[in-house]
Amino acid sequence: MMVAETANSYYIGNNIGVGFTMVELKVRKFGNSLGVVLPKEVISRLNTQDGAPLYLTEAPDGGYRLVPYDPDFETKMAKAEDIMRRYRDTLHVLAQ
User: Fold this and answer.
1) Is the pTM of this model over 0.70?
2) How far out from the chain centre does Cα 65 lie?
């Protein structure tokens, strides 16, 4: 555990892993909703663009993660890949 001099650096030091970057976002009002504007560096790192979906998922540590893919889709694809691997020969015969 890192020893910190202030409460803020304690939070950062104990909740952000080594090598991770923290980006401050400001919540702003957009019509009747609230939102945040992502800086160019974040957009580039997420490999996203205007109108593309992003998913906010709960992390095991109680925080949140912003990801450019649907985690449910990833789970379904992992299951599909497992089925394709187990039944490779059968699927090959059916494809003919």
Assistant:
1) no
2) 5
DSSP class per residue in 53-87: --EEEE-TTS-EEEESS-HHHHHHHHHHHHHHHHT
Cα–Cα distance between 47 and 38 in angstroms, integer? 12
* Per-residue pLDDT at 31: 94
Considering only CA atoms, which of 30, 78, 44, 75 is closest in space to residue 57? Answer: 75
Q: What share of the chain is helix, strand, coil (3-state, %, to 5)?
A: 40, 15, 45
User: How many C-beta neighbours within 10 Å does residue 92 have?
Assistant: 9
pLDDT digit string, tens, across residues 4-46: 333 444 344 444 455 667 889 999 999 999 999 999 999 998 9
AA letter at 56: L
Place of tokens 């202030």: 6
